[in-house]
Amino acid sequence: MGGAITILRPVPIFPERAFVFSALRWITAAAFTVGLGGCAAEPARGPIVVVDDAGDTVRLARPASRVASLIPATTELLFAMGRGGNVVGRTRWCDWPAAAARVPDLGDGIVPNLEAIAAVGPDLVLLYHSAQNAAAADRLRSLGMPVVQVRSDLLADVPRIAGLLGRLLGASAAADSLARTFDAELAAASVRPPSDPPRIFILVWEQPPITVGRGSYLSEIIERAGGRNVYADLPASSGQISVESVVARDPDAVFTSSDTIPGFARRPEWQAVRAVRDRRFIHASGSEFSRPGPRSPAAIGRLADRIRGLPR
Amino acid sequence: MMRLAGLAAFALIALTIGVGAGSVALPPGEVWSGLARADAPASLIVRNLRLPRALLAFLVGGGLGVCGAALQALVRNPLADPYLLGLSGGAGLGAVLAIAARPGSGWPVPLAAFVGAMAAVVLVYRLSVVSGRRLDPRVLLLAGVVVGAFASAVMSAVIVLSDAPQLRNAFLWLLGGFTASSWQTLGLFVVYSVIPFAMLFALARSLDLLALGEETALHLGTDVERAKRLVYVAASLLTAASVATSGIIGFVGLVVPHAVRRLWSPLHVALLPASFLAGGGFLVLADTLARTVIRPLELPVGVVTALVGVPLFAVLLRRNLA
Question: What SS3 string covers B5-66?
């Protein structure tokens, strides 16, 4: 985990400002090229060819302009790149930015509704890469809709997928600027790993208790915020654990996605855990804590504040 | 008597293993001092977590064994198990509704599962009381299957239509487990289950006669209708409580009574206590495996009971045929 050294306080990002900035940049770039004689802003000569996360080679004759974005993370990225106007469909989980609510809701992103997708007539479908989506991807392709399958699980996926989207939409300049901004904000928000970091237990579900291991986004942002996941030794990205092993690992605080004292904290068996007894919780609701995207640096900044505020 | 003493010894050994082993490896000396002294370092784990968990698993396993034995006699069908009577479907629906309704309502999942199970039981009972006040075991079986299927269909619809992304975790809860065990849950289960246990044990002789056929039982002087109703009510109450404490744990209630019957006389006076001890010991061992095989991760205990119980039972079936 390359926690960048920073003397600055974590800089909160202003997504709206980033949005306006990249939109402006794109407009000036377009105006500039129009001024130069109307050649395309991007090198759109010949078809666009990308290899997606499923290993499939996808060819587009021209940049996509009607995108069905069936992953909340790609919806966030497209809007942050100033290409929200090209999104013609989204999942019901796409809750950011607020403008995304105006895009037609096509339902679930895993096992998607093919008819709803076909109805909006996309020239590109972005699908989460998972075994459950393989059949839907084949079917969409056979219906003549190009499909790009993407795996967006970790922080490193954000600039990578931004670049991919930039190529697919002919918006590489906006994508590159977004990726650079993201990398800079991430470096600024990341805390230098302390020698004795507060040890955090991440509880993602109460009954049965489920936590996440090192191969997960939550674990990643907690480490960057200066904490340490007590289950970082788990190779699985999530798993069911027993209260007994939480007692043995004796975390300093419990990460929870609820805004209030969670219900399990009052259950008698959890009183065996010191952090629960002492009511040391890091509350973090909000979808920026559940998926990597342009808001991740801000999420890390907020987590870092809370982790720094823990009594030691 | 010798055999019951042997089973009691098996149950004690199972409980000892259940308290001695866990997701944290503790040497026997530390386990012992944790049990004996409240200020020992391991006492938090051994006294507050492992002991109530092992005892609860024992009681729930014993309850499922007894219910399975009683229901197999009641409906005179070897496939009968405690969840047959629409209970699992009703409990599942209750749990899913409670999770889907969050965070608005504060219904805890176990309570909602209990209410769902009892609603299914009442419905099945109403459907099975035919021609006046007779409880027909064949109709009971069919009504159980039908109500269970209906509840499962509603449950699937709720899962598909709901916006709660946590709903997939409802399945994990239903798969069963003792992660939420504490002295309080154990106490609640003990207080609650005393009456159904007493009812079922008291009905052992009626069950023997029922297993022979209702007409025979009637000739031999049993109030058949009353016995059937009491068995049904007691088994339902006990199973619903076990669902509320630990979800749906398959195969214990089906396999344990059969295994005991194959090794002993089928008389219920012996069969019920034997099923209690065998079911309890078996579930404690299954839960210990669930906690330890992939530590610090845990398996749902229902997965272990099926993985271990089914091959064991298959061997037993073959051995008795030979």
Answer: HHHHHHHHHHHHHHHHCCCCCCCHHHHHHHHHCCCCCCHHHHHHHHHHHHHHHHHHHHHHHH
User: Locate tokens 């499923």: which residue?
Assistant: A54
Cα A187 from Cα A297, distance rounded (Å):
8
B35, B45 in Cβ contact below 8 A?
no
Q: How many whole angstroms separate alpha carbon A272 and alpha carbon B52?
A: 13
| Pairing state between β A210-212 and A238-240 | antiparallel
Q: How many CA atoms lie within 13 A of B151 on its CB side?
A: 31
- Which residues of chain B does A205 touch, with a Cβ-Cβ cutoff of 8 Å? 166, 169, 172
SS3 label, residue A148: strand
CB pair distance less than 8 Å for B182 and A269: yes
A-chain residue closest to B42, CA distance: A248
What is the least distance, in Å, from the CA of A89 to any CA of chain B? 18
Break chain B into its structural domains and give their ranges.
2-321
- Spell out the long-range contacts of B76-81 with Cβ–Cβ below 8 A and sequence spacing 24 or more: B76/B137, B76/B210, B76/B211, B76/B213, B77/B137, B77/B141, B78/B258, B79/B254, B80/B141, B80/B254, B81/B250, B81/B251, B81/B253, B81/B254
Residue contact B296–A245, C-beta within 8 A: yes
Sequence-ordered list of residues with C-beta below 8 angstroms from that of B140, at least 6 positions apart, any chain: B74, B75, B85, B124, B128, B232
Q: For chain B, say whether A142 makes contact (Cβ under 8 Å).
A: no
Minimum distance, in Å, between the CA of residue A240 and any CA atom of chain B: 5
Residue type, B21: A
Other CB atoms within a 10 A radius of the CB of residue B176 amount to 28
CATH architecture of B2-321: Orthogonal Bundle (1.10)
What is the arithmetic mean of pLDDT over A159-163?
A: 96
Mind listing the pLDDT tens digit for each residue in A192-236? 888 899 999 999 888 788 899 988 999 999 999 999 999 999 877
Tell me if B297 and A234 make a contact (CB, 8 A cut-off): yes
Contacts of range A105-108, beta carbons closer than 8 Å, 24 or more positions apart? A106/A68, A106/A70
* Residue among A208, A245, A248 whose CB faces B173 most closely: A208
Q: What ipTM describes this predicted complex?
A: 0.71
Percentage of residues of chain A with pLDDT beyond 90: 61
CB contact under 8 A, A241 and B296: yes
Instruction: Tell which A residues from 61 to 120 touch B, by Cβ distance under 8 Å.
Output: 92-93
Q: Do A244 and B49 touch (CB under 8 A)?
A: yes
Cα–Cα distance for residue pair A215/B153, rounded to 1 Å: 35
Rounded Cα distance between B190 and B126, Å, is: 28
Q: What is the 3-state secondary structure (H, E, C) of B215-280?
A: HHHHHCCCCHHHHHHHHHHHHHHHHHHHHHHHCCCCCHHHHHHHHHHHHCCCCHHHHHHHHHHHHH
Q: What confidence tens digit (pLDDT) does each residue in B105-120 have?
A: 446 777 888 899 889 9
Residue B145 to chain A, least CA–CA distance (Å): 28
Nearest by CB to B298, from A92, A241, A247: name it: A241
Interface check A146 vs B, CB under 8 A: no
Distance CA(A147)–CA(A51), nearest Å, equals: 11
